[in-house]
Every structure is written in structure tokens, then in C-alpha cells.
């Protein structure tokens, strides 16, 4: 059986978030957001992308929809990108604004992003470790 | 064009919630919850039912899925029922437990429920008005 790559990435992400203790829904229609996840403390509004390459593009319109939806809903907006063969990277949507190329926003693998563990607070972000030097807290 | 009654009720509910300032998603698959809505303060996890009659039935399994999903997600669980030709009624899911008939839970039109305005806090519930007598607060 053949699946579209995008749908498969979405299912994988949902599974990972559920393993991390979140309740997750996939949005039907997917006009404003792909995935909503919550764990009672943190609410995530996620647009999901996947690529075999090193960058993805997001239309200005989709980014604006994600931002306005998440503001109204009360959640943190992320673009989650599956770079095939590597781990998931999460890009806070507010920070993507301004990196526009024509009518699209570009996200590169090397852009500052977060791991899924950093997003859900299971792991400090690299920036915290460098600036505070207390990576062994347990 | 013909629509299924359930899908049509769901669309109507989504539209009403959006009018009331919520960001709303319809769940794809609908295994645990039909609709998720948030307004930055209040998160609603909703199972949607509609009937031409005076009662609806919900399987124990569906109710338990709604309750466990909403606890994990961090939202208030409701069964929203469109009694065709009347207004929407919202039944807090925790209060439905115990009213079991065999393997189903029954919800009657006359059961204590809430209007959509009461759920979103735009209107005091009847119980508040009777016990506190301050219905004219503005």
C-alpha cells in the first residue's frame, strides 16, 4: 500500500507527540493548521512539512493562517519539518516571519530550530545549555 | 447536494463557535473527539450529536474516550446535541457518567444542559440566576 509522504510524516509526528504524553488531533480539511496537541499545560498548533531535501517553503498565506489561528486558539505555533532520514525540527512560527522570498517563506535545515523534546520541555534547548551551563539538572 | 445530517450539525456548531470568537478544528478520523475549540482561556473538547427526536445515545466507549482525551489534552469535555428545530444543548461529559443504560449513556432533551452562550461564558447559567439573583450584571 502506498501512502503520500506528507500524510505519513503527519502520522509519525502524532505518534511521537502521543508517546510524549500529549492528546493529539489531526485537523480535517487542514486549512489553518494540521495538528493540535495539548498536555494540560502546553498547547501546540502545528503545520507539518516534510522533504527529502534541505529546505521547505511555506506560503505567506499559510503562515499567516497558522499565526492567526494559534493566537485566537491560545496555542504555540510551530512549523514541524521532517527532513527525511533525520530527526524532526520545530520552527517557532513567529520567528519565520521576515524570512520571506517572494510570496513564500523558506525554512532551511540549518536554521535555528528545536527538537521535539525541547518543544515539549523534556530537554533544555542548546541555547540554554550554552548560556547557563547547567545541562545536568535532573 | 445532499449532506449527512451529522456532518451538517458539526459545521453549524463550528460556525457558531467561530462567531463567538473561538478558533476551531474538526478532528480527522473522529475517534476520540469531533471538535476542538479554544479562545486563549477556554479549551473545549466536543462530541457532536444530532437528532430529530428527544434523546441521543452515546456508547460507554465513546464517552470514556472523550473523557480521557480531554483530561490529557487539558480541555472541558462536552457532548453537544443538536435537537433539530431547537437550539444547541451542551452536556458536561463528567455528569453523563452514571446515567448508563446497558452499554450506552442516554441524554434527554430535558436533562440539565447548557446553552452555547453559557458554555463560553457569555451568559450566566439558569442555576446562577436563581441562586444569586444578579442576572443584570453587565
General description of the model:
Two copies of one chain form a homodimer. Chain A is of the alpha+beta class and 138 residues long. Helix content of chain A is 32%, strand content 30%. Chain A is built from five helices and eight strands, in the order αββββαββαββαα. A five-stranded mixed beta sheet of chain A has the order 1-2-3-5-6. In chain A, strands 4-8-7 form a three-stranded antiparallel beta sheet. Mean pLDDT of chain A is 85; it is low at 133-138. At the A-B interface, strand 1, strand 2 and helix 2 of A face strand 1, strand 2 and helix 2 of B.
Please tag this protein with its features:
homodimer; 138 residues; alpha+beta; five-stranded mixed β-sheet; three-stranded antiparallel β-sheet; 5 helices; 30% strand
Question: What's the structural blueprint in terms of helices and strands?
Answer:
The structure is a homodimer of 138-residue chains.
Chain A: H1 5-19, E1 23-26, E2 35-38, E3 43-51, E4 55-59, H2 60-73, E5 76-83, E6 88-92, H3 93-96, E7 100-101, E8 104-108, H4 116-119, H5 126-132
Amino acid at each position: 500500500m502506498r501512502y503520500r509522504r506528507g500524510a505519513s510524516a503527519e502520522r509519525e509526528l502524532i505518534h511521537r507527540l502521543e508517546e510524549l504524553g500529549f492528546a493529539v488531533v489531526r485537523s480535517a480539511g487542514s486549512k489553518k493548521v494540521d495538528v493540535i496537541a495539548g498536555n494540560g499545560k502546553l498547547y501546540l498548533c502545528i503545520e507539518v512539512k516534510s522533504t527529502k531535501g534541505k529546505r521547505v517553503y511555506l506560503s505567506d498565506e499559510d503562515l499567516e493562517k497558522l499565526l492567526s489561528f494559534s493566537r485566537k486558539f491560545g496555542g504555540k505555533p510551530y512549523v514541524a519539518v521532517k527532513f527525511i532520514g533525520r530527526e524532526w525540527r520545530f520552527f517557532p512560527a513567529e520567528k519565520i516571519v521576515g524570512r520571506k522570498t517572494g510570496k513564500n517563506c523558506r525554512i532551511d535545515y540549518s536554521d535555528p530550530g528545536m527538537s521535539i523534546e525541547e518543544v515539549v520541555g523534556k530537554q533544555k534547548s542548546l541555547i540554554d545549555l550554552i548560556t547557563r551551563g547547567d545541562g545536568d539538572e535532573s
